[in-house]
Amino acid sequence: MIIVYTGNGKGKTTASLGQAVRSLGEGKKVIMIQFVKGPWRSGEDEFISKFKIPKNKFRVIKGGKGFVGIMGDRLPRSIHKKTARDTLKFAKKTILSKKYDLVILDEMNVAVGLKLISENDVLKVLRKVPNSIDVILSGRNAPKKLVDLADIATEMKEIKYKFRPSKQGIEY
Fold first, then answer.
1. Which pLDDT tens digit goes with each residue over 57-81?
2. What residues make up the domain containing 47?
3. What is the DSSP letter of 93?
């Protein structure tokens, strides 16, 4: 099954993590591969270490180098592109390994929207997903072809958002 969480509202990664908790509760193995989010520690990292969740049950892989072109990013775009391509290769290898029951491709939609990776390359990977594996794609501005391919697509719509700047424990 392919699930897409998109939209400009809060909750895409949070919904993905909620699905991870449900899957873990059912004895499944989960991996979250983050495409844009960078090397900083986040609430999900703290959760895994504080609750001593074994890495063979739930892993978070930071594939990104940080936000692209905003929030003080000074890396050349070529670095972000290479990192996103490498992360997509890792995601493909992980999916085809069938080692995990749920694979979360966090901020994949953003990586496609920023043209760090191509929509067609993502579609090629998704078309090879074994029936036994569930995949979640998160991030704003999901391309129509990815939404069309999905079994479930949910759009988070921002109605009100008071946390500027972002708030620890809510945003990260």
1. 999 999 876 776 556 657 677 878 9
2. 2-155
3. H
- How far apart are alpha carbons 107 and 28 in whole angstroms? 22
* Beta carbons of 11 and 159 less than 8 angstroms apart: no
Two structure tokens written together for 170: 């809510």
| Phi and psi torsions of 152, nearest 5° | -135, 135
Q: Evaluate whether residue 43 is within a structural domain.
A: yes
What's phi and psi for 20, nearest 5 deg?
-60, -45
Residue 8's domain is classified under what CATH number? 3.40.50.300
Question: Residue 29 domain-assigned?
Answer: yes
Strands 134-138 and 102-106: parallel
Kindly report the CA angle at 168 between 72 and 37, in degrees rounded to 5? 45
pLDDT < 70 stretches in the chain: 65, 68-73, 75, 163-165, 172
Q: In what order do the strands lie in the sheet with 102-106?
A: 58-62, 30-34, 102-106, 134-138, 2-6, 152-155
Give the pair of three-digit tokens for residue 52.
């001593």
CB atoms under 10 Å from CB of 65, counted, come to 18
State both tokens at 150: 């999905």
